Amino acid sequence: MAALLRGLRAGRTLRGLCSVVSAPPAANPQCSGLTRGIHCAALRLQDESKSDKPPPSSSSTTHHEHYQTHSAEQASTSDPAAEEASRPNTSYQDQSGEQGEEYETEEQLQVRILNAALEFVPLHGWSMEAIAAGAETLDLSSASTGMFYNGAGDLVLHFVSHCNSQLTEILAEQHKQVQLGQAEQKRTADFLRDAVETRLRMHIPYIESWPQAMSILLLPHNIPNSLKHLSTLVDDIWFYAGDRSTDMNWYTKRAALTGIYNTTELVMVQDSSTDFQDTWNFLDNRIQDVVNMAGTAKQVQSTGEAVVQGLMGAAFTLKNLTGLNQKR
Amino acid sequence: MLERPVWSYFCPGESSAAELTRLQCAPAPRDSEEKEMLDRMLRVDHAGEYGANRIYAGQMAVLGRSRTGPLIQVWDVKEHLEKFNEILAENRVRPTALLPLWNIAGFVLGASSALLGKEGAMACTVAVEESISEHYNSQIRALMEKDPERYTELLQVIKEFRDDEMEHHDTGLEHDAESIPGYWLLKNAIQLGCKAAIYVSQRV
After folding, report:
1. What is the interface pTM, i.e. ipTM, of the complex?
2. pTM of the shown model
């Protein structure tokens, strides 16, 4: 397996090098375009791996990753010593996996690959091809897509969770502004509308392929995760909207917002108006519906209470009449 | 005007704005396991206080006009419920979905025990308060085992509430709770119901 990967890397780099003779071993970036390229790539990899947090990852995966990158460098230059000198920290002889910052966990690597893969979604859709293309831009073999057991599902779920965290950051920032008195607290309906609009706008770059993403999220093995992301999203939005309820309202509010969000998302994927104006109008109307319903519910409740009062009064009168109301 | 929100001077590690309104009753959970444990505890405590309020409301509905009315009134500690409402909101804990059920069940329990007379109401109170105190004690034990310093404020709150409940329990015993026929049966049936309610509220 390792030999195959090495062969693939070697083949690709040799094709890239074309007719260029292997460069003289020099760390001087002015030597030639080729060495500069290799040196830059090496430094970039070194910087990237240095900026990763120190994790206790499984030594075999880091070993594998570094072997891949190390062997890539080896194939493209005739002097591995120069490369080792310029990247002294990524020695694959160290298998402890805990030394220094240059070892990243498998999750961090997956995140990097998926982030890179998002660029290729408009081209390849939400699929393994996009992930493979993303892996290649990071100078990793496209066979590293084998890490993603869920395939396209991993990519879509990663995107969804990434968007959710972005939204949470934006909402937290707004909340801080309000706390510090630098901004006005919006009305609930406006807040909800802005939050949902902000979140849905994050889909715009991928709107062509979004129906595919939605169908991937609905696959049975993805449903638990997509529901979890959706419920976290809705809980976050209500929290920053100021909801502090601790009774059934907690559930009804979240259910209502989930309905609004899902239906608006569906409208958005088939909306062809400029800047999705139809979608935002639809969103406005749905939020208005919910507000009206809440108002009606309040009215029903107060009417109900009045009726109960009336009944209690009648019962009390009956008790008086039948003499049950004497103090014992 | 402070440059940063007040809380940030006291908790330098907390940079997430999600903790902006934390009143420090329960610490910010370090991982999802701790969050789940705290969630369960707070959820069931909240459900318990809510149920207790409904039980007393039921008892008041029947015995409010009688001699025992003022006694039961003293027990109606809405502050416990309000405190838990606050804690739940700060910690973003989901309240139990069975609240409407506890609403009705509590009221019915209170009202039916009160229909058995003053001793019935007292017996019900004794049973419920004993259950709740035992439950709070096990929570205190669990928190002490884990990390007493981390949970100091929460422990304080729970201890205070447990002491209040024990007081109600003792008052109930003073007022002839044990004199009702079938006391043992009634008490155990109610306690069994409470245990089941606690178990379910932790999860649903």
Report:
1. 0.81
2. 0.71
